Known about the structure:
The complex is a heterodimer.
Chain A: H1 2-31, H2 38-53, H3 71-74, H4 79-105, H5 110-130, H6 132-135, E1 141-142, H7 154-181, H8 183-193, H9 195-200, H10 205-231, E2 233-234, H11 241-255, H12 260-276, H13 287-304
Antiparallel strand pairs in A: 1-2
Chain B: H1 2-34, H2 36-63, H3 70-91, H4 107-137, H5 141-163, E1 168-169, E2 178-185, E3 191-198, H6 200-222, H7 224-234, H8 236-241, H9 246-272, E4 274-275, H10 279-294, H11 299-315, H12 325-339
Antiparallel strand pairs in B: 1-4, 2-3
Helix pairs in contact in B: 1-2, 2-6, 2-7, 2-9, 2-10, 2-11, 3-4, 3-5, 3-9, 3-10, 4-9, 6-7, 6-9, 7-9, 10-11, 10-12, 11-12
Amino acid sequence: MDIIYFLAGFGILAGIYGVFTLGLNVHWGYTGLFNIGVAGFFALGAYTAALLTTAPPSPELFEDFVFGGNLANTLQLGIDLWFFVALACAAIVSGVVALVVGAITLRLRDDYLAISTLGIAESVRLMFLNEKWLANGSRGLSDIPKFLGDFVTPKQYDLLYFAVVIIVLAALYFVIQRAINSPWGRVLRAIREDEEATAAAGKNVFRFKLQAFILGAAVMGIGGALYAHGFRYVDPMVFDPLLATFIVWVMLMVGGSGNNLGALMGAFIVWGIWSGTQFLPPEINNPNLRFFLIGFLLVLVIMLRPNGMIGERRRVSEGGT
Amino acid sequence: MIGQGIGVRARSAALGEWGWAGALALLCVVVFVAAPSKVVNGILLGSMIALGAIGITLIYSILRFAHIAHGDYMTLGAYISFFLLTVVFPAIGIVGTGFGPFTFGYPLLIALPITVVVCCAFALAIDNSVYQRLRERGTGLITIAMVSLGIAIALRGAIQMLWGTGPIRLPRETRSFYHIDFEIALPTGGALPFDIRVPPDNIFLGLTAVVLVGALYLFLNRTRTGKAMRATADNIDLARITGIDTTRIVHWTWAIAAAYAAIAGTLIAVARAQLHPNAGWATLIPMFAAVLLGGIGKPWGALVGGLLIGVSMEVSTEWVSPAYKPAVSFAIMLVVLLVRPRGLFGDRDA
């Protein structure tokens, strides 16, 4: 039976990574926006959810931490409703930050966005690390409440939360899938293929790019909130670029950018390989070797199989009358 | 009429960039009065950011993509120097610290050229095995930038495999700071006291930067290859038609960028007295901020941008925690993108 709990624990993280790859797929796969700061939106989402729902820790231990975010006790919704508030607020905060940065950089060269997202990720991490009153600094926030925690025993909770993650993931998948297959999504793909031609066809390229950037960032924020409630502890070290940005890129490129199903497959397969390596003998189970392989795999996939495992379906001649 | 119009526009643009530079210079003077030590050290540390930014901007102008692995090329340089200084040189009897007024010893001066050669060879090998194939295939520039992200990750993983993830101390000797004390008499009768403290190593950083920037100036303006490089930056197709071997120019670009990155990475480690696998990656945001501030593809812009970013990062510690230095450079970058996206010396709105 233990294997089921292990698989559920694995599935929770893989599912959360699936949320990030879906968000990144909106950015890169469909619109061609180069976001290398997934970690920033991940952190914003996770901290927003944690701060909204966590009770303040005892003051003797954390004298600098004042915010506390004890909203859950003031506004008696019960934690199970607060969970949804937290998800929504995580999406809003990430989206607003994306709006501000996107409004500045999306009119300019494509690679300015990449550098800016890197800057967001770094600045957000520095803020949560140094503003102790806001987020308790390097000690992080612990005891983030469980969603639906009263209904099952702690041992079975992973199974329940796995179901929650899968439901949220499925909902996001269908929303994004609908958006992408709508005329709006068609404009995004047109921008990715040829920005000038799209502008010539009368589309406001900047507005569409900005909307896609906000949508993807909001999805990543939801992923962050799911993480916070699933692991019930966040600190700034969680959001290091390797496990919060680079691996998401590898997942998307391996699975196939421009295809949401491919993005999800990539998340589960790459996370499967990543967590599978912990069973390797210690001589070759080197975290730095994995670090190296993540980068190597990214280069290799782009060079040898740019479309990933299942790339985008070719749509020419499809959708005609 | 039309010609005149263009002339007027060109002049107003020129006035604009000098106007911006003048306003910034004035700001620098004000800040200098407020925190002279930080300004001086900011210029010296900023010169290293500038060396990295010059490499990024050269790659931008010739290869047209954002080289995200540049910070990790710097880290590689620092670790190769460290390896030479602590493993190779002691084995053949070259040891020493405290060369002249500096904390490091004369072996560093021998290690730097070797490091430069190794890093150039590495950059050329990567170009040959990866970037050149992608260029021949006509891969998009953003995808090439993403490949450079992959190389950055792989390189850092490799460095961590070889030398571990933690910070490493460099062999050094403690030296007292230079201490300059002077007063400027004010017309109102009082006196403005200045008290400037500079670590000797920072002087070495500044001198190295002056030599390297001077060498780059002579290279770009006085040699055939340098002129061909500028021509390629202006218009690669036109350069090819006039018989310039653009492949050779690409190789020169990588060699210069990698050499300057290796030196900057090593000297930043010397100034901080420690190596960290993350150091180069963390310098990436200040370097790109310098590139954008100076205007993409402008080596002199990258130099000015690097110095300004260096000063801003040091001076900001008067008001905000030193931990926010990278965020300060990011904030400056956003302001530049907002008010003058082409940067101080850029030709056109990017």
